[in-house]
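sry for the spam today, last one i promise. C-alpha cells for design, 217 residues
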C-alpha cells in the first residue's frame, strides 16, 4: 500500500486557517485516496487513520495540543460506516476537530502576544516607544505588528500608548502640584505642546482646567 501524506494538500491550509481551501483540498485528497485503495474499504480506512495520526504527530512538534486518538478506535469507526462516502465524512470530523484546535491555539497565542505588548507599554510608557521596539518585543515584523495590534486592541499602538500616558498624567494632575510641563515630561510626551493637544482631544479641555474642575468638585 502506498502512503498518502495529507501535508501537500489540505494540512497546510489547516495551519493557515483557510477554511475554503482546506475543504477543497480535502475533497481532492479523498478522491486520490479512493483511487489508491481501489475500492477496498479496509485499505481506505487504514490510509485515513494513518494520516490522522501523522497530523497528530506534526502538530505535536508545533506545540499544538490535540486530543489523542487510538488507532484501533479510529479503524473501528471506519468499519462501522456502510460506504466510502460515509467513512470519509466520519474521518473528516477528526480533521475538522484538529482545524478547530489550531484556531484556538492561534487565538490563545494572539492574546498572549497582545497582552505582552500592552504590559511592555505599561512598564515603559515614559520611554520613546516606537513600532519597531514593540514589534521586537513580540518577535513580529513591524508592518504586521501594526495591523495585528489594531485588530486585537481596537486601536493602533500609538493611540494605546497615549491612552496609558494620559491615565498617568491624570493621576499626577490630581495627586501632585507638579506643573503641566513637568507632568508631560514625566509621562513620556516629547514636548508639552503634544501633551496639550492629545489631552484636549481625549478630555475636551486643557490639563489645567481639568485639574481645577476636579479639585473644585
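last one done:
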Amino acid at each position: 500500500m502506498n502512503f498518502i501524506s495529507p501535508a501537500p494538500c489540505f494540512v497546510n491550509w489547516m495551519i493557515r486557517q483557510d477554511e475554503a481551501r482546506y475543504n477543497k483540498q480535502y475533497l481532492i485528497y479523498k478522491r486520490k485516496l479512493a483511487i489508491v485503495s481501489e475500492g477496498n474499504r479496509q485499505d481506505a480506512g487504514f490510509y485515513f487513520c494513518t494520516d490522522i495520526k501523522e497530523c497528530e504527530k506534526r502538530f505535536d512538534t508545533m506545540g499544538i495540543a490535540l486530543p489523542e486518538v487510538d488507532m484501533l478506535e479510529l479503524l473501528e469507526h471506519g468499519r462501522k460506516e456502510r460506504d466510502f462516502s460515509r467513512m470519509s465524512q466520519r474521518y473528516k470530523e477528526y480533521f475538522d476537530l484538529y482545524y478547530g484546535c489550531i484556531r484556538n491555539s492561534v487565538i490563545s497565542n494572539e492574546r498572549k502576544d497582545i497582552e505582552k505588548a500592552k504590559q511592555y507599554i505599561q512598564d515603559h510608557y515614559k520611554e520613546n516607544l516606537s513600532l519597531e521596539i514593540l514589534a521586537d518585543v513580540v518577535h513580529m515584523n513591524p508592518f504586521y505588528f501594526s495591523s495585528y495590534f489594531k485588530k486585537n486592541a481596537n486601536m493602533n499602538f500609538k493611540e494605546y500608548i497615549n491612552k496609558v500616558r494620559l491615565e498617568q498624567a491624570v493621576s499626577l494632575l490630581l495627586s501632585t502640584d507638579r506643573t503641566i510641563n513637568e507632568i508631560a515630561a514625566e509621562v513620556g510626551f516629547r514636548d508639552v505642546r503634544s501633551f496639550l493637544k492629545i489631552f484636549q482631544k481625549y478630555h475636551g479641555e486643557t490639563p489645567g482646567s481639568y485639574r481645577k474642575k476636579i479639585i473644585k468638585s
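Residues 84-124 form the longest helix (41 residues). ok im logging off now
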